[in-house]
Write a structure and sequence with these properties.
Layout lengths: L5 H11 L11 H15 L8 E8 L5 E8 L7 E7 L13 H11 L2 E5 L11 H15 L8 E9 L1 H13 L10 E4 L11 H4 L8 H12 L23 E6 L5 H13 L4 E6 L14 H24 L1
Helix pairs in contact: 4-5
Length: 318
């Protein structure tokens, strides 16, 4: 049996005792409501913050992309912006589910965080989510005073599907913005939609995220499109040379663990400054389960210390 932390085991036992069908046996609308309700039960309170503001960014087709900016500095000076893309398999999740996490990041790193509410599948299939996030990130870099201060650099970040999008944004925009991408933070990222072995089998059921749920997410987002397209599976990019410094975080009990490991390995092999961190005995989704899994808060802050190191290194070199 794999090692499972005590607080993780308690959450898994609670989830196993819940009646009802699996998420992949229902529809997207129901799954979205379940994620919202679960977030209210298992996430930490948001806490105090100096500023939080909702606004919209125009996508390339004119669609208004909702966004939320966070800052714990009363009068922000020029500085980097962390752009956060939420998880949820490109089908569920929103900026409200990730509100507490983004506030915690802003407080701890003392940087502005902008959370992006990109369009979801199956109403908006691939590549709409990727294009929304590319457009929003470009707008933040090119329209700095719209978020309250000049922007000196961008830090794409996200978990799961959001980690996928952060990797995609770095591949699409690195070197193509008026400010540098200082670092990327990939939190248990979904970077290989073809994965069907290793941790995808070992942790296929019983650890919150299931292999069945990943197949359901992928089908909703991709339909019959090419799963190896780099905007869908960034691990299949021809080269990762020259990518921004990376912090890759995986969890030991996650079906996505091995693809996160593989992406970190490809970055390192390409000569990219990379910090790889894995949380033993931890499950997928942990950064938004910090109320129910106290040790996930420690994992988050360990990540943020590593990310601060990468940001400071890039800023000093810049």
């Amino acid at each position: 049996m794999p090692f499972v932390r005590d607080d993780v085991a308690a959450v898994l036992a609670m989830l196993a005792a819940q009646p009802g069908p699996k998420m992949e046996e229902g529809d997207a609308a129901t799954a979205r409501q379940v994620m919202k309700m679960m977030g209210q039960m298992v996430e930490r309170p948001r806490g105090e913050l100096a500023h939080s503001r909702d606004f919209t960014i125009a996508a390339r087709d004119g669609h208004p992309i909702p966004a939320r900016a966070y800052s714990d500095i009363a009068e922000p000076e020029p500085g980097p912006v962390l752009v956060f893309y939420h998880g949820g398999g490109w089908v569920i999740g929103d900026i409200d589910v990730y509100d507490s996490l983004c506030a915690e990041i802003a407080r701890t790193l003392r940087v502005t965080v902008v959370s992006i509410d990109y369009r979801l599948a199956p109403e908006h299939r691939f590549p709409v989510a990727a294009e929304d996030c590319i457009d929003a990130t470009r707008w933040i870099a090119e329209t700095p005073m719209s978020i309250g201060h000049f922007v000196t650099g961008i830090i794409p970040a996200g978990d799961s599907a959001g980690g996928n999008l952060a990797a995609v944004i770095c591949q699409a925009l690195n070197g193509n913005l008026p400010v540098p991408i200082l670092a990327q933070w990939l939190i248990y990222p979904a970077v290989d939609m073809t994965a069907d072995s290793g941790s995808m089998v070992e942790f296929a059921d019983g650890y919150l995220l299931t292999a069945g749920a990943m197949a359901w997410f992928t089908a909703h987002y991709m339909g019959d499109q090419d799963l190896r397209h780099p905007l869908a599976s960034p691990i299949f990019a021809t080269s990762l040379a020259g990518q921004p410094p990376a912090l890759v975080f995986t969890c030991g009990l996650d079906p996505l663990r091995d693809q996160g490991r593989a992406y970190a390995g490809r970055l390192i092999a390409a000569g990219v400054r990379t910090i790889y961190r894995e949380a033993a005995g931890q499950i997928h989704g942990s950064v938004t389960l910090r109320g129910a899994i106290p040790s996930a808060q420690d994992d988050l802050h360990a990540n943020l210390r590593d990310l601060r190191t990468l940001i400071d290194e890039a800023s000093a070199a810049g």
